[in-house]
Amino acid sequence: MKRAILIVLVLLLVLVLGIRALRRGASVPVVEPVLPTPAGITVTETSPGSSPSTNQPTKLLSEIILRDYANTNLPPQNDLTLMSHLMENSLLLLKSAANRSLSANEDWADFLRGQNAAHQRFLPDNHAALNSKGQLVDRWSTPLFFHALGGGRFEIRSAGPDKTLWTADDLQRNADGTFLRGSELNPASLFPPSSKPSAAARR
Length: 203
Prior knowledge:
The protein contains 5 helices and 4 strands. The protein has a domain at 61-202: Glycoprotein, Type 4 Pilin (2-Layer Sandwich). Strands 1-2-3-4 form a 4-stranded antiparallel β-sheet, covered by helices on one side. The protein is 29% helix and 9% strand. The protein is of the alpha+beta class.
């Protein structure tokens, strides 16, 4: 009986003290439990809305699209297709480029290297598609030939293994994605006597 009375008195005392604290506006401190951090794990506190920083550099568009450029395990047609895709995507990203004349090799090389209205770089200087003069080259390190057809359409021509344009082993990607080479690309009258396409090239 005495024990029950004692418990009631203690509860009443706690209740009275709590009411007084509330009337005075006193705040009750909240103690958050400290959880142990597992061994080998570092915890970094970040402010709300911030994202962890990464040391990974952002890849340029060419490093994604031209990943297999000049890959000798793939046919040379692949190189011209990839270059065409890079040109088309860069024009889509920079609508203002439509107002600029892009026809010669140097025009495209400058544009892709960041010399455009937005100063947006698509191609690093050390890429396999560029030579030391800043020209866009094929897998044989020969400058590509670009022929603008208008309306964002263009043809890309590689000089081929002999590294000489307008000869029998040239390869051209047309605006529609088809390819021409040999006698299909060059009429026989354009070939010098020493480089007329052989029967094999005409097939």
